[in-house]
Specification:
Helix content: 10-25%
Number of strands: 27
Shape: globular
Structural class: alpha+beta
Oligomer: single chain
Largest sheet: 8 strands, mixed
C-alpha cells in the first residue's frame, strides 16, 4: 500500500521531515518530534518493561512450578469466588524432613487475589523455629534453644539494629524449609547488609534482638516440656505485656503491626483503622497455640489487588486460625520455600519500588527448619 508524505510506509515513521525507522512491521508506529526523541525512547523502554511484567505477573502470576507434589487430576491452585468461600486443601510439604507441614495456594475471584499459605504443627519434636539474629548451627539450621531463665542481650550495638536480608537469603542461610518477613523496620531499600532499625520485639533463640513496642502486637513462642511431648506452643499478644517473667519464658518472638483475628472474630477496630488494600504477610494460630499458619497475599498488580486488614483476618480464619497477626507488608511481603530440588524460591511476587519480582532487604524473618540436635 502506498502512502502520501506524512503517512506511514515501508516500516518507517515520517514526521516533520524526520524519519524514525521501525525495527519490525509489528512495531508500534508513533510520530515523534525530533527534539523529543530521547524522551520517546525512554518512554518506549519503560512501556515495554511494564508490559512484560504485567503479562508475567498480572495475567499468569501463579507459578507452574509447585513446591509440593500435586496428585494426578488435581490442581495445585485452589479457586474461590470470594474470601468467605475459601476452603483449604492442604498438600503435604517437605514431609520427609519435618512431618506435619502443609501447603495451600489459591486465587479469589472477588476481590481479585492470589495467596500462599503454610500450616505448621508446632508439636513436632523435629521442628525448629528460627528468627533473624539467631546463631546458625554447624551444618545449617539453628542451635536448639532451651527455655531461658533470663533473656540474654544479643550483643548488638545499638540493640534493635540488624543487617538487612532478603527472605530467600534468610532461608538459604539457616537451611530453612520456609521463611516469611516479620517486623516493620526502617529505612526501606533493596540493599542487603544495610543497617535496619527493627520496630518491636525480636527474640532469637533466647537472645533479645530488639525491644517491645507497646503500640504493636507480636507472635511469641514457648518451648514445651519434653514430658508434654516437646515442640513449641505459640501465642499472639500485645507487646506491652512483654516484660519481666513473661519475657524470660519466651524462646522466640517477632513483632508485627496489629491483631486482625481474636477468638475467631475480626475485632471491630480493625476495619475502622484502615480499608486500604496492600500486599500482606500474616501469622495465625489455632485455639491451643499448637498449629501455626503463615500467609502471604499479593497486591499492587492486576492479578491480585491486595487485601484490607479485615479481609486478612477472615482469610486466616478460613485457613483454620482463631488468632491472627498482621506482619509488615507492602513491598516487604515475601514467602520463600525450599523446593524438592533443594532450591529456594519466593512463591509470591514481591513488588519493591514498583518492580515486580524484586525482593526488599528486610529486617527480621521467621523461619521453619529441621531441628539440629547436639
Amino acid at each position: 500500500m502506498n502512502h502520501k508524505k506524512g503517512g506511514v510506509g515501508n516500516g518507517n515513521i515520517r514526521f516533520s521531515g524526520t524519519i524514525i525507522r521501525s525495527e519490525s512491521a509489528s512495531s508500534c508506529l508513533v510520530p515523534v518530534c525530533p527534539g523529543h526523541l530521547p524522551l520517546f525512547k525512554g518512554f518506549l523502554l519503560r512501556f515495554c518493561l511494564i508490559l512484560v511484567f504485567s503479562i508475567g505477573t498480572g495475567l499468569c502470576s501463579c507459578s507452574t512450578l509447585s513446591p509440593v507434589t500435586v496428585p494426578a487430576g488435581r490442581s495445585g491452585v485452589s479457586r474461590a469466588v470470594s474470601i468467605e468461600d475459601l476452603s483449604p486443601r492442604w498438600l503435604p510439604f517437605a514431609e520427609d524432613r519435618i512431618p506435619g507441614l502443609g501447603y495451600f495456594a489459591g486465587t479469589v475471584g472477588k476481590p481479585r487475589l492470589e495467596f500462599w499459605a503454610l500450616r505448621v504443627d508446632l508439636g513436632e519434636a523435629d521442628l525448629a523455629i528460627v528468627v533473624s539474629g539467631q546463631e546458625p548451627a554447624e551444618g545449617g539450621g539453628a542451635e536448639r534453644p532451651e527455655a531461658p531463665e533470663e533473656i540474654e542481650s544479643a550483643g548488638l550495638s545499638p540493640i534493635g539494629v540488624i543487617p538487612s536480608t532478603r527472605v530467600s537469603g534468610f532461608v538459604k542461610r539457616y537451611d530453612c524449609l520456609a521463611g516469611i518477613n516479620a517486623n516493620p523496620f526502617s529505612p526501606v531499600s533493596a540493599k542487603i547488609g544495610e543497617d535496619r532499625t527493627i520496630d518491636g520485639i525480636t527474640i532469637a533463640g533466647g537472645r533479645l534482638i530488639s525491644l517491645p513496642n507497646p503500640g504493636f502486637d507480636a507472635l511469641v513462642f514457648y518451648r514445651e516440656a519434653e514430658a508434654e511431648g516437646g515442640g513449641f506452643r505459640a501465642a499472639i499478644v500485645n507487646q506491652a505485656i512483654l516484660e519481666g517473667e513473661e519475657l524470660r519464658r519466651i524462646t522466640h518472638a517477632v513483632g508485627g503491626f496489629h491483631i486482625v483475628l481474636r477468638e475467631g472474630a475480626v475485632p471491630g477496630a480493625v476495619e475502622k483503622r484502615s480499608k486500604a488494600r496492600h500486599p500482606r504477610s500474616a501469622a495465625g494460630l489455632s485455639p491451643d497455640g499448637k498449629t501455626l499458619y503463615l500467609l502471604v497475599v499479593d497486591g499492587r498488580r492486576p492479578g491480585s489487588i491486595g487485601v484490607t486488614e479485615g479481609e486478612l483476618g477472615i482469610m486466616l480464619k478460613r485457613l483454620g486460625a482463631s488468632e491472627g497477626l498482621n506482619f509488615d507488608g507492602g513491598g516487604s511481603t515475601a514467602l520463600a520455600l525450599r523446593y524438592d530440588d533443594g532450591k529456594v524460591r519466593v512463591v509470591n511476587t514481591p513488588i519493591h519500588r514498583g518492580i515486580p519480582g524484586r525482593e526488599r532487604g528486610v529486617a527480621t524473618c521467621l523461619g521453619i527448619a529441621p531441628e539440629t540436635r547436639p
